[in-house]
Amino acid sequence: MRSKDVLLSEFGELIDFLQLLKSQEIKNWHESPKKGKWAIGDIISHIVLWDEFFLKKAILNIKDGEPVAIKELKFDEFNKKAVPYGKKQKKDELLDQAIKYRKLLLKELLEIPEACYHKSYGKFVIANYLETFIEHDRHHMEQIRCWPG
């Protein structure tokens, strides 16, 4: 079981990666490498929407002592919304949103006592969420690092 400090440090790794992407010229931002696969912009918008969702539906509620507003998640349905959302955004705008939401999440998570990280809020546990999304981030960062072209 990782400590709050370790979890937050690892969860924040994405910010440096996103800032690196901002500094690079990416010609195929909205182009998928294969039919049925996401483009880099789609991956980033997917991360933005998840961060926004968990910030507004779970983390802020926990911090404010309110019930977590997460019901049964339909992951595929939720993820499908990411593609059209991302297509409307320019690269730097989308990266700025991703950085903003991740920083907001980290700020709010930092203010929640470590004892609350392993407490169950319905089906939501902060430590489990962080561990899952750290791996999720790493998966997508590796996909982007190995991007063809």
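the 2nd protein, sequnce then structure:
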Amino acid sequence: MNEYVRAYTRIESRAERRGSFARLYAPWLVLLTAAAIFGRVWNQTQAVRLADELTRLQTEERELLQTREEHERALIGLTTRERIARVAREDLGMSYPSEQEIVFLAVPGNAAVAEQEAPRRVERPPGGFVEFLAERLRGVVNREAYALSTM
């Protein structure tokens, strides 16, 4: 009988060890399962939040690009030569200069350049007031650059 008692004792100790294993590790398994479920839910929540934010930002980008295109079209309309000439004439009171209003200035210290370039009558180009002013300014800048380069 001793053998049977020993065998029974071994079986009981194994059963106790198995029971203690379940008591020891079951809370950890439940905790890990809960953490995994929580992590999965949190991950999905963050993905949905980021997708919503991405959609909002893409919509905002589209709206800003449309606004930019509208502003560019408005700028093109405001910078036409005809409009600039009209604003200069009507709002600023500018007009084409007469012969008496044109003044030629000599470059100080470089009389040779001033003598070489005699004043000449400038014809108005057929393009309009803006082209006329642009041509006049180019001429003045070229004469000044030539005078400064020969000093």
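The mean pLDDT is 79. Residues 85 and 130 are 6 Å apart (CA to CA).
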